[in-house]
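Worked example 3 (structure in, sequence out).
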């Protein structure tokens, strides 16, 4: 095959707890991640030239080596130097639907799709664990984006334990078009405000992970109980992002007042989501939000919670 196209899903965080500082400068986290059916289309195809080229239909997405998807290809090429000599260069084509700088892992899921697509294109035969190990060098969310579905993510976020997936739930996603939040800024600001609450991660990392395992959120997930999941949504980073950006707080309040099972900011934001038990409830919430924000450009999407992140759609 000369070309593979994959759909690459966004993620939301159903739970995000900051445990403390890691020696590598990152934060130790305990999270529940969930793939949602809002997808980009990522194509990798062979070209005659011996280099990596990237194009994307979104003006804010860079098409050079600063793009995570480009860096994913460069990492695979560096790890397997013979591949380009054997197969020639590649082109990556990204058709963007996932909002950029949104806390939905759009860049990470594109990089995951490139790793999986090139594994097929270059016939590398890597296992999921091998792909996830490479992915962790590029970004903390990318190993989850390879696995997809519902998962507990710990460490930097790169240690992924897949759970039995959630079925039948939907998310209404809301994002202001003019605002994006930098992830490094969110974590740095959180550290400035809450360093005194940080725990020693050597003991607290495992104990907070255990705590999550026996928490009401995990019971709710294992029982597929949408109401209880909605009640136990949690994200530490809301504490800094909602206070620094009152407009995000305002959208959260509006979204939460429309009904649904529960409302939370995803990752480092600014996207907010409300869970619903059906597509029709999600549509009703979108309608209410559109009438409330009739003259704004507030982005609203309905996405089912899905069991996978990456799917081959064409080869
Ligand atoms: O791993 P990734 O490149 O996605 O992380 C982006 C930034 O977010 C990091 O440079 C760091 O500032 C912050 N971060 C963190 N702790 C994590 C994940 C990310 O402090 N576990």
């Amino acid at each position: 095959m000369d070309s593979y196209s994959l759909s690459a899903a966004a993620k939301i965080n159903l739970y995000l707890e900051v445990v403390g500082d890691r020696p590598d400068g990152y934060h130790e986290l305990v999270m529940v991640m969930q793939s949602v059916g809002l997808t980009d289309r990522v194509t990798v195809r062979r070209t005659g030239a011996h280099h990596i080229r990237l194009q994307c239909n979104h003006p804010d997405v860079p098409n050079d080596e600063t793009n995570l998807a480009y860096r994913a290809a460069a990492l695979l090429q560096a790890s397997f130097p013979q591949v380009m000599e054997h197969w020639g260069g590649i082109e990556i084509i990204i058709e963007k639907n996932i909002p950029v700088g949104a806390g939905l892992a759009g860049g990470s899921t594109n990089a995951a799709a490139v790793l999986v697509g090139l594994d097929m294109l270059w016939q590398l035969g890597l296992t999921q664990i091998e792909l996830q190990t490479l992915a962790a060098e590029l970004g903390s969310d990318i190993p989850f984006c390879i696995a997809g579905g519902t998962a507990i993510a710990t460490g930097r976020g790169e240690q992924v334990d897949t759970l039995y997936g959630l079925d039948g739930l939907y998310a209404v996603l809301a994002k202001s078009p003019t605002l994006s939040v930098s992830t490094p800024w969110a974590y740095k600001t959180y550290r400035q405000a809450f360093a005194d609450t940080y725990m020693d991660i050597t003991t607290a990392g495992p104990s907070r992970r255990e705590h999550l395992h026996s928490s009401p959120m995990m019971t709710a997930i294992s029982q597929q109980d949408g109401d209880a999941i909605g009640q136990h949504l949690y994200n530490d980073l809301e504490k800094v992002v909602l206070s620094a950006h009152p407009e995000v707080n305002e959208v959260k309040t509006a979204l939460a007042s429309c009904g649904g099972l529960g409302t939370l900011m995803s990752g480092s934001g600014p996207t907010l989501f409300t869970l619903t038990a059906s597509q029709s409830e999600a549509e009703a919430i979108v309608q209410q939000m559109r009438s409330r924000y009739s003259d704004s450009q507030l982005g609203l999407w309905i996405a089912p919670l899905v069991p996978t992140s990456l799917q081959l759609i064409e080869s």
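Notes: The mean pLDDT is 96. The longest helix spans residues 106-121.
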